[in-house]
Every structure is written in C-alpha cells, then in structure tokens.
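Residues pack. Consider this:
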Amino acid sequence: MRYTERRSIDATLLKRSGDEEANAVENVAYVTKDTMYKRKKCTILLVILVTCASFLGIVHLLSNAPEFNQYRILRAYQRQIRNEATAIDAGRPRTILLWNSFFKNKRWGFDEDTLGPDYFRDKMNCPVYRCDLTNNRDFLPAIEMYDAVLFHVAEPFPLLHSVPRVRAPHQLYVFALMEPPGETKHVLSDEGGFYNLTMSYRLDSDLLWPYQMFEDIETDAVVAPAIRPKWRQAPAVWNDTNVSQLWEGKTRMAAWFVSHCETLSKREKLAAALQEHIPVDIYGKCGNFSCPYTSNECDELLDKSYKFYFSFENSLCNDYVTEKLYNAMKRYVIPVVFGGADYSRFVPPHSVIDAEDFESAAELAAYLRYVATHPEEYMRYFWWRRYYRLTFRSPFCDLCAKLHSVPFRQKTQTYTDIEKWWMGDQCRFEAKINF
C-alpha cells in the first residue's frame, strides 16, 4: 500500500476515534448534569421536609404548652379523672379496718362489727358511701388487702399482733385520737414514718373528728369548727321567748358536772376560786351535789334552775373542745368555757363566756353577777339559735371519700415525726386567768 493511502486511512480512523471520544465525553457530561439536578432536587425536597417537620414540631409544642392551652389541658385532665373515677365507683367498696378498740369498745360506738355501704349512706349520710368498715381482721383474706387501718392511740397496741406484720404500699395507716396529748398511750418516738393520715379534734388534722359542728340553718353549710369561720354578727338586742319563760325560775347561779377531780388544766382550782365570789354547785364525786348526768332530770335542772354552766376542759391544748361545751349549748344555760382553744373557731360570737378573757377569777365572777342580774344582756347569749344548729358529721365519711378520690390516691404522705406533730407546742400548763 502506498504511503499516501495509508496516511489517509489513519487520519480517517483517528477522526472517527476522536468523534467517539467526544461523544463519550458529551455523554458523561450529560449524565453528570442529570445527577446533579436530581441531587439538587432531593436536597430541596429534604429542606422542605425538614422545614415542614420543624414547623409541625413547633406547632405541636405550642399546642401543648400550658401557657397557651391551660384550659384545654385542664378539661382533658378532668375528663380523664372522671373516667378513672367512674371506673373506681364501678369497682369494689373501699375497706377500713379498726385495728384496736376505742376505750374497750371494739365497735368504736357503731351498731355492729361490720358495716357496709348501706350504713354509710343511710345512717351516716355520707355523700361517698361505697365503703366497708369492720373490726374483724378476717373480713378480707389478708391484712394487706385493706385500704385503710385505724389505730386508736389513746389505748396501747394489743399485746398479741400489736401491729400488722405485712403492709401493702397502697395502705393508709390512720392515727386516730379524740383525747389530748396527755392521754396518749404510745411511745410516739418509736412510730415515726408509720402513719399516713391523722384523725383528731385538731383543725389541722387530715380528717377532722370534732364532737359537734355548727351548721347554718338557711344554707345548711357547716360553718365551724374551722380555722376562719364566717359568723354572723351578734345583734345589740335580742330576746329569746323560751329563755324569757324560764327566767323567773333560774334562781341558782352556776352548775358543774364533773368526775375527774385533778387535772392538768387545774380547772378544779379555778372553780374553787370562783366559789369564793359566787355560788357554784358541783355535781358528781368532785362535789356535794348528785344527779344522774345521763338522765333528762339533769338537763331539765340546767334549763329551769341555773343561769350558767361550767364547761371546763381537763387540758389546755390547741383546738381541744369536747362534749362538755356542746351539751351545755343544747340547754337554755350560758356556758362558761375554760380551755386552750380559740373558741371563735368553734362557736358563734357572744354565745359563751371565756374565762381566759378575764385577768382573775374575781373579775370573771363580777361579770357573771352582772349578766345574771341583767336579763336583756343574758338573752343576747342565745341569739345564735335563730341562725345556727348543732349537727354532727362522721370523719368516716371523709375517709371513705378520700379512699375513692383518684387525685388523693396519687399522693404519698407519711408523718416522719408524729410525736412532734402531736405533742410539740400543743398544750400549756399555765392558764391566762389568775386564780
């Protein structure tokens, strides 16, 4: 082959190879652009998705933020509570076990050893009544199945099985006592962390256990005992028809029914100091007069013959107000009180005469003589009967309600130092009045 022809062929092959290479480069460039476009598109979509997700996240956070949606959150929670409460009401009754006796009374004054929801509803008039109350430890298969166990602390624990051997986490142990700290029959320093609830006469108890309550006649609302009761004001002038009719027969000054002669409050010495200034008839083994205290004869004697009755407590302790006062307020006689309570938290204004409002027994006696000789002033002490009535509500109603309360059951409470709570700064041994 000639040289010129060969060069022509090589040139043609070289051109064809160059064209193929150019096409290949062009194809590669096209693929690269397409890939970059797709990547850019994916990046844009990813940015959009991230932005949308962030926006939705912010919306979700704002929609659940309490500062923007507190009402919706509250309504949702209340719906949940109602649903849970409905489920609880549909379940078993709550069970309350009386672990030891109440002054040798195993029934704590109730009619039977075991009381069911019907008793809570019909006899105690409890708004929440699905509870069983028993002193029978075999009422349920195991002690740890009871919802609440009550311990009467004015009596020692039983010698055998002094306390339950097993305790479930859900169980509430209740410290129950109507007597003042001086009557406690337990070494409370050994019982720290044992009790979850307190049931006593003290106004700061978890379950208030008063002897009586005052109820507004018009509204049926319980007014006292309370830390800040809202009383009506006593009128400047008042006349009670029943007292007016009895007035002429009330020729005797003061009476006192008492059987506990030596007390921490020294009430017997106050009575003796008053006897130096006014006549005081003391009934029972501490005095010279006798009357069956539980009979109607004693009540009628107060109504018809006496102007004052001494409601003196045996201890000067915070909130300690017993049946001595309320029994007198049921009669047509003015109670003269002596105790450690702030009586404005317990009785209507100008309904009793507080001995500790006076500096001395002589000053108190002088005021009693004044009231006894001024019928219009005497009548004013009975104004409250027009607006209030004495009533009673069992603390077991409140306990039953707490055992059925979903929010209450979510709380955890233990008295780590029950001795300090019960005895610390609660009582005094010196009276404010001198005698």
